[in-house]
């Protein structure tokens, strides 16, 4: 069982992602902003799901801060922004995976398993 931190400003998206993570047998905590994610994050988390388009600190700003802090917890970006440049920027800033919304359980499970297996 892994521990996942979900950062998304949409209650609906946090609920959907949390339900999928729960169905996959993992535990999760959810926050509604990049600032909260940075405050909550510690080494006990195995992965972060991070939305890019949030009020306050954006996901890109959060990725930049995580990079400054030499974050070792893998980040999977989940966003409605489908621009190729946004995907490339996220990966350059250290994201281990990238998914477009609307997320399916199968896709989330595949990417999460890939990212967690690489993090070992």
Automatic annotation (TrEMBL):
InterPro entries: Bact_response_regulator, CheY-like_superfamily, Sig_transdc_resp-reg_receiver. The modification 4-aspartylphosphate is found at residue 51. Signal peptide: none annotated. Gene3D superfamilies: 3.40.50.2300. CDD domains: REC_hyHK_CKI1_RcsC-like (cd17546). SMART domains: REC. Keywords: Phosphoprotein. GO terms for biological process: phosphorelay signal transduction system. Residues 3-116 form the Response regulatory domain. Pfam families: Response_reg. PANTHER family: RESPONSE REGULATORY DOMAIN-CONTAINING PROTEIN (PTHR44591:SF3), STRESS RESPONSE REGULATOR PROTEIN 1 (PTHR44591). This is Response regulator receiver domain-containing protein. It comes from Ekhidna lutea.
